[in-house]
Every structure is written in C-alpha cells, then in structure tokens.
Amino acid sequence: MKKTVSDFVVQRLHDWGVRRVYGYPGDGINGLMGALDRADGAIEFIQSRHEELAAFMACAHAKFSGEVGVCLATSGPGAIHLLNGLYDAKLDRQPVVAIVGQQQRSALGGDYQQEVDLVSLFKDVAHEFVQMATSAQQLRHLIDRAMRIARDRRAVTCVIVPNDMQELPAVPVPPRRHGTVHSCIGSTASAAVPNAAALGQAADIINAGSKVAILAGAGALHATDELIHTAERLGARIAKALLGKAAVPDDLPFVTGAIGVLGTRPSSRMMEDCDTLLMVGSSFPYAEFLPPGGQARCVQIDTDPRAIGLRYPTELGLVGDSRATLAALLPLLDQKEHGAWRQGDWADPRLVVMVLNNRDLNLVSWEQRMLGGYPKFNASQELPDLPYARFAEMLGLAALRVDAPEAIGPAWDAAFAADRPMLLEMVTDSAVPPLPPDVSLAQAKAYLRALWQGDPEAMRTIKATMREYWASATA
After folding, report:
1. What is the pTM of this model?
2. Band of the pLDDT at 103, cuts 50, 70, 90?
3. What is the CATH number of the domain that holds 35?
4. Which of 137, 162, 187 is the last residue in one of the domains?
5. What is the spatial distance between Cα 100 and Cα 200, in angstroms, rounded to a whole number?
6. Domains held by the chain: number
7. Same domain for 239 and 334?
8. pLDDT on residue 106
C-alpha cells in the first residue's frame, strides 16, 4: 500500500521521538487515525474522554517526561475543545504540539459545516507556530518546525491538516527546486550558562547580602541538588512557588514551603525580612508576597529573557538553565554562617495529604468575601456531598470517613497501619477561613462588608475566625 500523508506524519513524529499521542477521534482526522492504526503500536494512541483532556494530558506528559507532548483532535468543535489544555501548556511554558483536522480544502470559505478559521483560533495559544497544510510537500517542514519550536522554545505549536489531504500520497522528500523547503530532524545546542563576567557580578550581589531568600519555581525542578548546595553555602532559606513544589523536599529545616495566598507564614516572614532575593526558574505573579520594591537586591535565573524583571525589580538577570547556572555560580559564592535567619520558624515540616470535604468551593467563597466584599452565593459555591471514602472503597482502597475530632487520631493510626493505600475523608467546616499569612486592612473591611450584606454563614464564620486567631495566638 502506498504511503499517505497521514502515514508520513505518524512516521515523522516517531522519528522525532514521539511514542505517545493523546486525543479523541472524529471524522476530520480519520486519515490520521488510520495511519496510527497501521503503525502497529509504534506510537501509542491514548484515547481521552474529551479533547480538552487530551491537551491537558499532553501538557502533563511534557511536564513529567521532559519530552514534547502531542495531542490530536478533529476539526471544528474538537479543535476548539483543545484550547483550555493548550493554554495550560502555554502559561506553564511546556512543549506541546497540537495536530488538528479541518474540512476539505475545496469547502473552505464556503461557511461549510463545522468550518472554523483554525489558524486564527490558535494564533494566540500557539503564536510561536501555527500553520495549515495546503500541499503534501509541506508536511515534512511543518512537522519538523512544530516539533523543534515546541521543544526549543518550550511553547505550544499547531499543525492543521485538512481531511482531504490526509489520504493524499506522501511526499517524504520535496523536489529540489525553487519554492520548496528542506527541513530536518536534529538536536539544538545553545549556551546553558551565562558568561563568566555575568556570573561574577551575580556572585558579588549575592555575597553582599546577609539575609538571602531563594524562590524556586518550575524551572528549578531539575536543580534540586544545586538549590540545596546554594542554600547551604549562603545560609539561605528556600520558598517554593506552586509549580516548583517538588524542587526541594519540605523536610529540610531551611525550606519554608509554599508562598502566596495559601503559603506558609515562614515563607511570608522570609520575604518581609530578606535583603537579597535569588529567583530561580520562577514567574510567581503575586507581588504582594514578594519583598517590597527596593528592599532586596535581586538576581534572577531563567531560560527565557522575556521573564527577567517581570515580577520583581531585578538587578541582574542570568539567562540560562537553572541547574547549569547554579552549578557555575556555586564556586563564586562565599560560605556564610548559619545563624537564626537560616533556621526559620518551622514547628513541624512534615507534609500530610488527605481529602478535606467541606462541601464548598471554599477558596472562591473566601475570595468573594475578603477580596470583593460579597456574601457567599450558595448556588454557585456549594458542592454535592460526594462520599469520597465509599468511592475509594469501591476502587479497592482502604478508607475512613472522619466526622468527629476525637476520631482523627485513631484514623491516622489506622492509615499508617493499613496494608494498602488508604483514603481519609476529613469532614471539615467551610466557615473556617483559609487565612493568608497576613490579613490586610482592605481584606478585613471587605470581609465585614460581606457579613453585613447577609452572608448565609455570617455567625459561623465569625466564630470560626475568632477560634482560629486565638489558636494561632496561643500556639
């Protein structure tokens, strides 16, 4: 059987190292689906329940494997459904290639069924590269460019393949003539470490500080040892943005945990008191949880020069790989004493995971109260009382539902003694506020305004807030 355009696309993806594609079938990609079947497992097709999930799965694949994630969707509605997951990849700077179908070329411009201007639709989320194929000779360089740009720029790219093109004869090698493009597969070498002068300048800034705070993000996930060695050398403490949570373990005494609205008090105090800030692979967006402008001298390490100085006034930006840059910077850093600044104020650094069932979209409920001054709107905020423990048991897990304070201790004892994974469903009170490390006057006024306007849980939240503040003050 003569190879089709679809066969060539599948083979080219395989040649780039793709071994898994996430998607949902539809008649706009029948040719591509047939080619995946004919490839006899060379590329595994993972069927999602919805195209949006396929894009999220491709993004997760990129995050956890370090490879380019690939998703596949049909034309029209199927392509539209990809967008949410692709924006997740774009905003988290993950390399994802979306391959989507389109109505046949002869119908385009005719207001045909499910005809959507897909190039315009994807132009924002895949702004680094989005192209629709109109000739079989294009497919080689379209796939090559989509893969290379996604990988090297850590971006979302998109290739649109009309369904009538998918069954055309493949053109593996375009003719050598004017107007053709001859691309290739290969690796890209780039400078991963800034020059020696920049590293020396960064070391001078950091060595001059006596209270160094490190903020680690997703770009530092592969630099665990280097972050720890840097903190040890400087007597520094490390806070973590949400996407950088796995960068360093929480049980190290100088790791203060998460930063932000749901961050820890040690992280908040560190940012309030530091005189030097080393940002490593982070684009943490909330300025109110960073040092006030002018308080701390800042050195920022990031692979993307566009991220330098975006979140905090940066005295020096180092564009490079976080692991390699820290490794090159370490020999230039002074060994400092580990004083009180280093130890922080952790009482217990352990991390506990459980299901907290408060039957409420609680973070948003409290944002409505404390940021907007609006009372809780039950119709939008209340959740069904899903029996998490019973559902876990249906899956073969051990489980307990805990709905009384005196049952908490025995439940943990049972969990640690279980012979299988165990779920603890803790029935919690939605009226207890998820207080940030510090409550501003504006937040307090908005909270009181929400209660005054008839919040349905006004008295419960007041009592719970007073109990929480008392517990914090007497701890």
Report:
1. 0.73
2. confident
3. 3.40.50.970
4. 162
5. 48
6. 3
7. yes
8. 81
State the residue range of the domain holding 333: 196-343
In three state form, how does the secondary structure of the chain look? CCCEHHHHHHHHHHHCCCCEEEECCCHHHHHHHHHHHHCCCCCEEEECCCHHHHHHHHHHHHHHHCCCEEEEECCCHHHHHCHHHHHHHHHCCCCEEEEEEECCHHHCCCCCCCCCCHHHHHCCCCCCEEEECCCHHHHHHHHHHHHHHHHHHCCEEEEEEECCCCCCECCCCCCCCCCCCCCCCCCCCCCCCCCHHHHHHHHHHHHCCCCEEEEECHHHCCCHHHHHHHHHHHCCEEEECHHHCCCCCCCCCCEEEECCCCCCHHHHHHHHHCCEEEEECCCCCCHHHCCCCCCCEEEEEECCHHHCCCCCCCCEEEECCHHHHHHHHHHHCCCCCCCHHHHCCCCCCCCCCCEEECCECHHHHHHHHHHHCCCCCHHHHECCCCCHHHHHHHCCCEEEEECCHHHHHHHHHHHHHCCCCEEEEEECCCCCCCCCCCCCHHHHHHHHHHHHCCCCCHHHHHHHHHHHHHHHHHC
For residue 245, being part of any structural domain is answered with yes
Choosing from 309, 343, 377, the residue where a domain stops is 343
Answer yes or no: do 291 and 364 share one domain.
no
- Tens digit of each residue's pLDDT (9 = 90 or more) over 301-310: 999 999 999 9
Residue 391 lies in a domain: yes
- In this structure, is residue 97 part of a structural domain? yes
Is 455 domain-assigned?
yes
CATH number of the domain that residue 333 is part of: 3.40.50.1220
Q: What is the pLDDT of residues 158-173, one digit of tens each?
A: 999 999 999 999 999 9
